[in-house]
Amino acid sequence: MKTLQLSENTLLLTAISILMIPIIQKDMELKMDKLSLLNLKMLSALILVVLMIMTKNVEDVMMENIHGVKMVHFLLFQLLH
To answer: Which parts of the chain span the membrane according to its record (predicted)?
Structure first.
């Protein structure tokens, strides 16, 4: 069970990291083409879906990783606006 929990946390952190890349590059005024940006969003969404599939009890994971989940919501909001 510990290894599964570690995997969930790792996936959550990976998703957060990937979601942050477009925001960081926007702040730094770096240019990223739309296809790369779309691929990053799709990859992070895929990781989040895998995370949800892996977790049998989503509520428990969300409570344990509430700050990570809030961060993902915040970053998705930033990307969509």
So the answer is: 36-54
